[in-house]
Design brief:
Residues 9-281 form the Rad50/SbcC-type AAA domain. Pfam families: AAA_23. Residues 259-293, 353-387 form a coiled coil. It comes from Candidatus Manganitrophus noduliformans. The chain crosses the membrane at residues 326-344. With 635 residues, the chain is α/β, with parallel strands linked by helices. It has a domain at 256-389. 54% of the residues lie in helices and 11% in strands. It contains 17 helices and 14 strands. It has helices at 37-49, 107-118, 123-130, 138-142, 183-243, 256-290, 299-317, 327-377, 379-388, 393-421, 426-448, 453-467, 496-506, 513-525, 555-571, 591-604, 631-634; strands at residues 2-9, 18-21, 26-31, 65-71, 77-83, 88-94, 100-104, 131-132, 535-537, 543-545, 548-549, 580-583, 610-614, 625-629. It has a six-stranded antiparallel β-sheet. Mean pLDDT is 77; it is low at 143-178 and 470-494.
């Protein structure tokens, strides 16, 4: 069984025909308070399971009509239609061309057909297990956020009865004991009935106002937490701006053409400097090859001097005769010639070296001149590099890009905070929360004052019916408007866990309690990775957390446990294909827990269609289908 679409018209606040398309998997239906989320859920409950439209108002001078289109077990497309003003209900099958063939008009038979399509479970059980509204969550019972808050039915230790449609016991009064009321007494009781009906209408309005107040409190707390997170992020951004980007203050943007010109000129300068460096290296190599230019370090000069001196000393020690007498002049001339050659060679090397050194100095001056000319022509960029402490233009560009991203994030945080606060301050939001909590407390006390009205109404109606004298009813010709809508489906408040266990024991095979407990612990552990608390599920429906009763934990933790058990329990009903409908289940959870809960529902939606009504603007990408309800669409 798969829901495909829900159509509404003439039911507040849907003044115009409205279609809500659904898909397999997780469906998110967004909407602010008063957009019609609760109306859609109650209409869906009425169409599928025959429940009354409690607290729903119709648009004046418009037909109050609704329909749900679904896919049956045979993969055929079916449409259940209701005209609430006329009391008509139809079940039709749609062919491929969209033509309808009427199958059933009896509302009870239509409900029985839905139950059969969903897997054979009774409508009371389907309503109890799969149509979950905010009031069934533990936090809705406690209205608090601390340990020690009592939650009726969640951990009482006694399994609550399976919720049934409202059926009060009829008063079996023997015919001979039926009281006969006077016209005055009948009129008085009829006035009492009207007064109770008026109070019941007031009770529905009080309930709606109370739910809206709780929604406002949740939204305000969410805004308050988000604003504080944004304030913390803004402080971190400001600290980074002071420490890391102080030098970039006032230079958010630099003309791109200046940077391009600078980069082109820098490349040309580098090319010229590279050429100069190559020439300098060549000169340095030549200088190295020249060797020493010191005259007295020249080996030839030393040899020449030694030869000359020895030539002068030789005649003093040896008498030179014959051809040996020529050794003296030859030695002197050779020594003087060798010394002179060494002197001339050394002088030439010194002159060449001096010329090379002068050329080297010219190259250095040319390189400095290029740098000065470059700095002068690109003074603006050069000063920016010096101011920001960047050595290269690429480093400047990278840091400037990071600074621009930093400024963009700063603007986003500021805009997000302004949009979140909507002109209010954090103190004003906190004050609004206090006022709404006071209003909610007053409404809760007022709502409790309406207890017992339904039973009293039924008692008065029964007394009037039994007091009527027996007479043959007149024959009235009128068209068959279909059966009277079934009684409202009322939930035993906050008794889901014992109720689910009671239903599970009746299935074949019965609930695997240990498996449900194990799966509940796995899901609950995902909310807090570091928690050590282990859940223990007892046969009577009582849950303990590390030996402590569930009534001793906070409301948020209790809701996490409730959702974990809900998904674990429904996995045991894999043969039941009825969709899970949740109305605002996250209102008390922190943002991180809300994301975890949404992830759990996304996983469960792979096995069962889920329809989630919420006021929180989760990302549409988180679901298979996202629909937004708004006043502009309805009116």
């Amino acid at each position: 069984m798969l829901l495909l679409a829900i159509d509404l018209y003439g039911i507040e606040p849907f003044h115009k025909p409205t279609r809500i398309s659904l898909k397999p998997g997780l469906n998110l239906v967004f909407g602010a308070n008063g957009a019609g989320k609760t109306t859609v859920r109650r209409v869906l409950s009425s169409l599928l399971l025959g429940n009354d439209l409690k607290g729903i108002r119709f648009v004046e001078n418009q037909p109050a009509q609704a329909a749900v289109i679904l896919q049956g077990r045979d993969k055929g497309t079916y449409r259940i239609t209701a005209d609430y003003q006329k009391g008509l209900f139809n079940l039709s099958k749609l062919d491929a061309s969209g033509q309808k063939s009427l199958l059933e008009k009896d509302r009870r038979k239509i409900t029985a057909w839905v139950c059969e399509q969903a897997g054979g479970m009774q409508e009371e059980d389907l309503s109890s297990l799969f149509l979950i509204d905010r009031l069934q969550f533990p936090s809705a019972a406690s209205h608090g956020n601390g340990p020690g808050t009592q939650r009726s039915g969640l951990s009482s230790g006694a399994p609550g009865p399976v919720p049934k449609k409202t059926e009060f016991p009829s008063f079996q009064i023997p015919d001979n004991e039926q009281p006969v009321l006077t016209p005055e007494q009948r009129a008085e009781r009829q006035n009492q009935i009207k007064e109770i009906q008026r109070k019941l209408d007031e009770m529905a309005k009080v309930e709606e106002t109370l739910l809206n107040a709780r929604d406002r409190i949740s939204v305000s707390k969410r805004r308050l937490n988000q604003s504080r997170e944004l304030d913390s992020e803004a402080a971190q951004i400001q600290d980074a701006e002071t420490k890391k980007y102080a030098a970039f203050a006032g230079i958010e943007t630099v003309r791109p053409d200046l940077i391009k010109q600078y980069e082109a000129a820098a490349q040309n300068k580098q090319t010229e400097l590279t050429q100069l460096e190559e020439q300098k290296e060549e000169i340095q190599a030549n200088l190295a090859n020249m060797g020493e230019t010191d005259l007295f370090q020249d080996q030839k000069l030393r040899i020449g001097i030694v030869v000359t001196v020895c030539s002068f000393l030789l005649p003093l020690f040896v008498t030179l005769q014959g051809p040996f007498r020529y050794l003296f002049p030859i030695g002197v001339l050779a020594g003087i010639g060798l010394s002179l050659f060494a002197y001339l060679q050394s002088t030439g090397r010194a002159a060449a070296k001096k010329a090379l050194e002068k050329k080297m100095t010219g190259f250095n001056e040319k390189a400095n001149s290029l740098q000065r000319k470059f700095d002068k022509e690109h003074k603006e960029i050069t000063e920016l590099l010096a101011k920001t402490g960047c050595k290269e233009i690429q480093e400047f560009k990278d840091r400037q890009r990071a600074y621009q991203q930093h400024l963009q994030r700063k603007r986003e945080v500021t805009e997000k905070r302004e949009a979140l606060l909507k002109g209010e301050t954090v103190e004003e939001i906190a004050l609004t929360i206090q006022e709404d909590e006071k209003e909610a407390k007053i409404l809760e006390e007022k709502f409790q004052g309406y207890s017992g009205l339904t039973e009293e109404l039924y008692r008065l109606e029964e007394s009037l019916r039994h007091s009527e004298p027996a007479k043959e009813p007149p024959a009235i010709e009128m068209p068959d408007l279909g059966p009277v809508p079934a009684a409202v489906n009322t939930h035993a408040p906050f008794s889901f866990i014992p109720t689910a266990l009671s239903i599970g024991k009746q299935k074949n095979p019965p609930f695997a309690l240990q498996q449900v407990e194990q799966q509940t612990n796995i899901l609950y552990a995902l909310f807090k990775q570091t928690q050590n608390g282990k859940l223990h599920l007892k046969e009577d429906g009582e849950i303990e957390v590390s030996g402590v009763g569930i009534d001793q934990v906070s409301s948020g933790t209790a809701d996490q446990i409730f959702l974990s058990f809900l998904l674990a329990a429904l996995d045991q009903f894999s043969n039941v294909t009825f969709p899970l409908v949740l109305d605002e289940p996250f209102s008390i959870l922190a943002p991180a827990s809300q994301e975890t809960a949404l992830e759990l529902l996304r996983g469960a939606s792979k096995r069962r269609q889920i329809i989630l009504f919420t006021v929180y603007p989760f990302s549409p990408k988180a679901a298979d289908q996202a629909v937004t309800l708004s006043a502009s669409q309805s009116n």
